[in-house]
Amino acid sequence: MTQTAIHGHVLIVEDNEADVFLIQDAIATKKLPVSVDVVKDGEQAVRYFDRADADADAPCPNLVILDINLPKKQGGEVLKHMRRSLRCGSALVIAVSTSDSPRDREQMKELGANGYFHKPSEYAGFMQLGDIVKGLLAAGTPATESSSS
Amino acid sequence: MTAAGAKALTAFVAGGHVENSVIREMVEALPVAIYTTDAEGRLTYFNAAAVKLSGRVPELGTDRWCVTWKIFLPDGTLLPHDQCPMAIALKGAEVPTGIECIAERPDGSRFWFTPCPAVVRDAEGRIIGGINLLMDITDRKNAEIEASEQFRAIIETTPECVKIVAPDGTLLFMNAPGLGMVGASSAEAVIGKNVYDLIAAEDRDRFREFNERICRGEKSSLEFDIVGLTGVRRQMETHAAPLRHVDGTTVQLAITRDITDRKQGDRAALLLTAIVDSSDDAIISKDLNGVITSWNKSAERMFGYTAAEAIGQAVTLLIPPGRLDEEPKILARLRSGERVDHFETIRRRKDGALLELSLTISPVRDAQGAVIGASKIARDISERKLAGRSALLLSAIVDSSDDAIISKDLNGVITSWNESAERMFGYTAAEAIGRPVTMLIPPDRLDEEPKILARLRRGERVDHFETVRRRKDGTLLDISLTISPVRDAQDAVIGASKIARDISESKRVRAALLESEARFRQLADTMPQIVWTARPDGCVDYYNERWYAFTGFSQDAFGDASWEAILHPEDLQKTQENYYAAIKAGQPYNIEYRLMDRAENRWRWFVGRAVPVRDAGGAIVKWFGTCTDIDEQKRVQDDLRRANEDLEQFAFSSTHDLQEPLRSIKIYSELLATRYGDTVNEEAQKFVTFVREGATRMEMLVRDLLTYTQVTKFEPPRETADANEALNNALANLAGAISESGAKISAEPLPSLPVHGTHLQQVFQNLIGNAIKYRSPERQPIVNVGVKRQGAHWEFAVSDNGIGIDPAYKENIFGLFKRLHTSDEYSGTGIGLAICQRIVDRYHGRIWVESESGQGSTFRFTLPV
User: What is the pTM (predicted TM-score) of this model?
Assistant: First the structure.
């Protein structure tokens, strides 16, 4: 599959700016033809989806990178809300977290996350997120779970 | 006041001054306080009586509404002058008549009065002034109050229930005796509630109908039963009258008497009649003239006369002509209050046949004790001769008795001697009969016999007299004696029968029991615990002193309910269930509960234990229990558990939270080095390296700490874990270190055991990881994992050929953050062995190290089989 076939809009839901930078870096290094929006907490994310439903011209992501631990509304709730959205309900979702707990993985999977990324503490490891995004967008189907540690 | 008078007064007021001196003089002289005001209520005139009544000289033109100093309503609340009846009238409102007020004079004295305000209007109907008459009603009020006080005194001192009931059954008033009858501890318990609830269910409708009748204005009385608040049934007789209540309704005023005792008396009389009628003896009563006044069924049978025939006849009707002299003698004895006992004589039936009778005749007295007649019980003894037959039977009984049965005459000479007497005293009947009974009495007790004989001669019986007697062989015997007088046919005492029971054994047992009980109580009272005993059915029959000191209960409070009262409500059901289940099963029990500490007025935790005490046959004869105060222990345990939980929760969440910023520090210091390393000087590069190393170490610490805290969240494993698999997983995680160090790892075949696989893996991983980390630089690291069975557990051993541990530090190394090396020499967090220790602890195992410095180490740990 060629890169020109990949089009998309990515929404990053992440409160930690340091991680936002790394996620953007991971996408940028793969030179994916996608536009990226960033929201900083759960409520903003919910509003983002609501606006997409209310306004056909508003952007709607086909991939969401969703931190589990968010201010105001947790990642799980955001995911539940998104799955009920008319326009964005079928977007691909990669849950990201510092936690490596099996319970978190299990819960996000049950809520319909397509991938789970355990944030590593090395730069190179973090950049693997780009591969996962690329793979998911190319296939349009859930990727296997991935973790760098 | 007449119409003309009113008109004159109106003119007098309207003028505001005195035009008519006749009226003025008349008003001045009136013994009623009168004053007038203008339309604004300012005083324009008052008479001398107003000054006298109010106790002050009002100021004309300044004082408003009233001449009085202060006004109060009957309930004692202050009535401001601008709200007084005169003020209300002047504001054009209707003033109800007959209002009663209290006024206070400046000197503090008070008087009751009734105001009669009226307004004066001009031709257009405008209010131009007012006039008020104050009627002094103090005397009347005082008389009323006195009367009501008297009334109250009567109500409260009468022993009858006085109550007032509303038409709907609401109890409006009840005096103290009434409260007592219905079992109410205070008036609040019943006043304002429905009185019908206190009436017995079957009488409730009748009482309701009665109450409604009274409230319609009737006077009536009623007998009914009450059950009160406590369910105790009593019979009542009430006399009720309608009473006009303050609110205008008609209510029931009733005086009610408790007639339970009287009713029971009636019943007793009925019962007595039934007994009299069912008696086989003829029971007859007569007056002092010998006229028959009652005649029972048996009298009909015995004499052949019906009650109708006999009553009213002279009792001589029954006496054969030859014995007519008996009656005057009997009557004479009765008049003097004497009783005639078992007088054997002959009487005649209606058909003329003669009867042999035994008569017992008692005087009948009136309530003042005067003899007014006699009751006569006649027993047919014609067949008494048949009794001889039963003597044989009696003798058989006497001989088969375990008790010694002896008879003696009034001189104390033995006249009969049964087989048990032979056994007990060692004398044969032949040896004993004819000899004085004193031969059985030890010398120091010889004075007993004359006393016993004296009592017997008086016809008295000696019951269960415990004494000591002497056997033929001289040994002493504890016995219990019961001695009854023996009478001849004429009722004269001619001797005594004596039943002697050997109580040596029971006396010994009782003494031993008393002694052991006394010892037990002494012991129990010195114990710091509460000690109790209970009957086999669980009913508590003893507490030691500590119980009474703790509860403040009185010493006679026993039984089931005695402990329930101070048990914490939340523990009550559980404790009862446990206790009675244990009693039922006959099993010891052990339960924790809270009891109320009277001294500190708070609950204290106790552990209650009880064990059954069984007799030789295994039957439970008693329960023995203790309550031990574990409050302090419990509190410390609770505090400790809470503190531990808090700490672990804190450690868990803080390690999680710590990870996130650490990750950023690590990655960004890495980025700083890779992207900008070339642009900064060597020192700056070194600093960045320190930051990265510090962050890496911190990250390890946090991860290990997290693992350590998670070991606490322990649940017993549901299945066994294969130790070989756990070891392989550990080795897989250590693959990097193993290949890097070139270590050689070997293992014996390992068992499966009841632990969590991840825990075992963690221990292996830490121990083997350490073995590789602390390897000797001089040789290839070799690690061996072994196991052997040691009784109820497996003892694992992880041996290496590394640098070893100085024996001085053998104990230290398992502590949290304990390290023997700087991080320059060996990296590490000082948590690994603490985790191992903690895991092994969870399974009640042990971990220790055997090592010589430089000679390698062997870590051993035990886990359950």
Answer: 0.36
